[in-house]
Design a protein that fits this description.
With 223 residues, the protein is an all-alpha fold. The protein has one domain (4-215). The protein has helices at residues 4-11, 13-40, 45-48, 56-71, 90-119, 125-148, 156-164, 166-172, 175-215. α5 (90-119) packs antiparallel against α6, α5 packs across α7 (156-164) and α6 (125-148) runs antiparallel to α9.
Amino acid sequence: MGWWFANFWSSDPMVAVAWIVWVVVSIVLHELGHGWAAIRLGDDTPRRLGHMTWNPIVHMGWMSLVMLAVIGIAWGMMPVDPSRLRGRHGDAVMSAAGPAVNLALFGLCVVMMPVTAAVVDSGTNLGRNLMTLWLVGGALNLTLMLFNLVPVPPLDGSRIAASFSEGYRRFAATEQGAVVSLIAFVVLFMWGGGEIFGFGFDVTRAAARAGMDLLGVRWGSSA
């Protein structure tokens, strides 16, 4: 096993470039989704603390950016005050806003793949690079959405589950719950992440093919 960037670059330089671009863009927009929802629900903490910005350093921090460079994986953070959110399930709505942004980005990439096939020659570098960009973006964002919806702290799904289940909320707040959550997160990340990502690629390709069939276009040797 070598450095992830070198491995990606040797396979296809555009994959490496697309990965970095989409990881940063997806995390920034994911966190802005949380912030926008929080503000709409009455909590101005994201704005007061200067997090409603496009600056990836603000959302990701230097440690996350270093980890992106080292292992190709990063994370983000949006400060919110759940006690200031309106509505019984305000925290759930705010938490779901991030994955919703990833779903929208997935949809955008899926739409752009058949559009690219319709207007760009598949034999050109531009066409191949654009298709790689959309494929990586679609797979990554679908993966981020699914991964974040798993009800394991610190993922968004845990806050959604806690908003609807008093039992879950009480258990997660205990020392035993914290240990179980940590183990579950590590297992999910180490052994489930690859499966979810592979599923993301398969779904993105299948959705793109369906779009191409709808438009009556083909891409290269396989639609």
